[in-house]
Amino acid sequence: QSKKNGRDCFCYFSREFSQQAEQALHLTNMLHKALEKEELQLYYQPQVDLESRAIIAAEALLRWHNDEMGWISPAQMIPIAEESGLILPIGQWVLEQVAQQIRSHYETNKEWLPIAVNISVKQFITDDFIEMVMKIIDAHAIPARCLELELTESLMLADVELAVKKMGELHTLGVPLALDDFGTGYTSLAYLKRFPVNKIKLDRAFVTDIHHSKGDAALAKSLVAFTREMEFELIAEGIEEEIQGEYLKAMGFRYGQGYLYSRPLPKEEFSKLFTNQMLTA
Ligand code: C2E
Ligand code: MG
Ligand code: MG
Ligand code: MG
């Protein structure tokens, strides 16, 4: 009896496993074609001043729609892009689109809006990453300070020395760096001082319960004190409720991002939102 169960079990898992592998392979093939079929899009989520709610910057977020499969989330797509190496052409496409968007925003509004781009570790560690970024900045004639790169702590797992060196070079070239998802990894505050980043993004995991979790509030407060001392900028991610924004403001946060202010929007809608804000200001 138990032997039979065991065998059923094995079959079940192996079938599930091969289905997963097949699904991944299928997605990889689709993703190969996604760029040329123009299935990828960037959405833009505002980053706001918590006090005035004015848009001070945006984050570009990748969206993929496929006729057969519908919307595929970045959580599904990015790992596949990384494993297949497709993250390199896709990542470059994202940087180009964003540089173009920064330029066209300037043409329309006569002001430079910083836009942040998520960079995967695989992309960051390629030999010509910095050269590629600088070429894009030059080609679109945008200020380096507007193209912000968001990196995660997983970067430090690769090669710390190399990562710090490259971050330093970008810093020198005037390209701002933000540490994304802060608090979810293993990096302590003490670790932070080694990294030449300009900005820390407190992860949504610490924002959600900020109004009733002593621990989350304590972390947020110490982060405010630390970033002030170290002259880092600080922003809170994933603000969904008024009360979270109020608490963060009271703790000394100046900037925030989240559904409360705006969801990520297609570029036309983002532009419209920005224009409306200028008109009503
Ligand atoms: P992230 O960089 O931390 O981006 C923030 C994520 O939180 C986004 O999810 C955003 O839509 C979502 N978000 C924003 N405000 C709220 C909120 O108030 N509540 C909740 N529940 N969620 C909120 P998204 O777009 O699904 O992206 C997920 C992750 O995928 C990103 O996390 C980023 O790590 C990665 N990603 C997205 N676009 C790119 C890209 O172009 N390149 C690379 N390498 N990674 C990307
Ligand atoms: Mg990000
Ligand atoms: Mg994040
Ligand atoms: Mg994230």
UniProtKB/TrEMBL annotation:
Residues 24-278 form the EAL domain. The chain holds residues 666 to 946 of 946 of the full protein. This is Diguanylate cyclase/phosphodiesterase with PAS/PAC sensor(S).
